[in-house]
Design a protein that fits this description.
This protein is mainly alpha-helical. It has helices spanning about 5-10, 10-30, 35-60, 65-95. Helices cover about 80% and strands about 0% of the residues.
Protein backbone atom coordinates (compact mmCIF):
# COMPACT_ATOMS: atom_id res chain seq x y z
CA UNK A 1 0.00 0.00 0.00
CA UNK A 2 1.47 3.34 -0.96
CA UNK A 3 1.12 6.57 0.95
CA UNK A 4 -1.64 8.11 -1.18
CA UNK A 5 -4.01 5.18 -0.66
CA UNK A 6 -3.22 5.17 3.07
CA UNK A 7 -3.97 8.90 3.28
CA UNK A 8 -7.15 8.54 1.26
CA UNK A 9 -8.56 5.86 3.59
CA UNK A 10 -8.94 8.44 6.37
CA UNK A 11 -11.67 11.04 5.72
CA UNK A 12 -10.46 14.53 4.79
CA UNK A 13 -12.40 16.05 7.70
CA UNK A 14 -10.14 14.22 10.16
CA UNK A 15 -7.05 15.80 8.61
CA UNK A 16 -8.67 19.23 8.72
CA UNK A 17 -9.63 18.87 12.39
CA UNK A 18 -6.17 17.57 13.35
CA UNK A 19 -4.49 20.38 11.45
CA UNK A 20 -6.69 23.01 13.12
CA UNK A 21 -5.92 21.54 16.54
CA UNK A 22 -2.16 21.51 15.91
CA UNK A 23 -2.23 25.06 14.54
CA UNK A 24 -4.25 26.25 17.54
CA UNK A 25 -1.77 24.68 19.97
CA UNK A 26 1.02 26.48 18.12
CA UNK A 27 -0.78 29.82 18.28
CA UNK A 28 -1.47 29.40 22.00
CA UNK A 29 2.18 28.54 22.57
CA UNK A 30 3.21 31.74 20.82
CA UNK A 31 0.75 33.91 22.71
CA UNK A 32 1.10 32.50 26.21
CA UNK A 33 4.80 31.66 26.55
CA UNK A 34 7.76 34.01 26.78
CA UNK A 35 10.51 31.44 26.25
CA UNK A 36 12.16 31.74 22.85
CA UNK A 37 12.66 27.99 22.49
CA UNK A 38 8.94 27.40 23.07
CA UNK A 39 8.21 30.14 20.53
CA UNK A 40 10.36 28.39 17.90
CA UNK A 41 8.68 25.07 18.64
CA UNK A 42 5.27 26.72 18.33
CA UNK A 43 6.16 28.19 14.95
CA UNK A 44 7.35 24.78 13.78
CA UNK A 45 4.13 23.21 15.02
CA UNK A 46 2.09 25.72 13.03
CA UNK A 47 4.16 25.08 9.91
CA UNK A 48 3.74 21.33 10.31
CA UNK A 49 -0.02 21.73 10.70
CA UNK A 50 -0.12 23.54 7.38
CA UNK A 51 2.16 20.92 5.83
CA UNK A 52 -0.14 18.12 7.01
CA UNK A 53 -3.13 19.82 5.47
CA UNK A 54 -1.32 20.42 2.19
CA UNK A 55 -0.25 16.77 1.95
CA UNK A 56 -3.78 15.59 2.72
CA UNK A 57 -5.31 17.86 0.08
CA UNK A 58 -2.62 16.85 -2.38
CA UNK A 59 -3.26 13.15 -1.82
CA UNK A 60 -7.03 13.51 -2.10
CA UNK A 61 -6.70 15.54 -5.27
CA UNK A 62 -4.22 13.06 -6.73
CA UNK A 63 -1.69 15.76 -7.57
CA UNK A 64 1.81 15.75 -6.12
CA UNK A 65 2.45 19.48 -6.47
CA UNK A 66 1.30 20.12 -2.89
CA UNK A 67 3.77 17.55 -1.60
CA UNK A 68 6.61 19.21 -3.51
CA UNK A 69 5.60 22.56 -2.03
CA UNK A 70 5.67 20.99 1.45
CA UNK A 71 9.27 19.94 0.81
CA UNK A 72 10.23 23.56 0.11
CA UNK A 73 8.37 24.76 3.22
CA UNK A 74 10.35 22.26 5.31
CA UNK A 75 13.65 23.51 3.84
CA UNK A 76 12.76 27.12 4.66
CA UNK A 77 11.64 26.10 8.17
CA UNK A 78 14.95 24.32 8.78
CA UNK A 79 16.86 27.42 7.69
CA UNK A 80 14.66 29.56 9.94
CA UNK A 81 15.39 27.34 12.93
CA UNK A 82 19.13 27.38 12.27
CA UNK A 83 19.24 31.17 12.09
CA UNK A 84 16.85 31.57 15.02
CA UNK A 85 18.85 29.26 17.25
CA UNK A 86 22.05 31.10 16.34
CA UNK A 87 20.44 34.39 17.38
CA UNK A 88 19.09 32.73 20.52
CA UNK A 89 22.57 31.45 21.43
CA UNK A 90 23.97 34.97 21.08
CA UNK A 91 21.18 36.42 23.23
CA UNK A 92 21.77 33.74 25.87
CA UNK A 93 25.50 34.41 25.83
CA UNK A 94 24.99 38.15 26.31
CA UNK A 95 22.06 38.22 28.72
CA UNK A 96 22.07 34.77 30.34
CA UNK A 97 18.40 34.21 29.56
CA UNK A 98 16.25 33.01 26.67
CA UNK A 99 13.30 35.16 27.69
CA UNK A 100 11.77 37.04 24.76
CA UNK A 101 11.46 40.17 26.88
CA UNK A 102 15.27 40.37 27.06
CA UNK A 103 15.46 40.79 23.30
CA UNK A 104 14.94 44.55 23.67
CA UNK A 105 18.62 44.71 24.64
CA UNK A 106 19.41 44.21 20.95
CA UNK A 107 18.05 47.68 20.18
CA UNK A 108 20.39 50.59 19.58
Amino acid sequence: MDITTAVQQVPLNNYIVLSIMLFSIGVMGMLLRRNAIIAFMSIELMLNAVNLLMVAFSAFKGDSSGQVFVFFIMVVAAAEVAIGLAILAMVHRNSGSVDINHLNKLKW
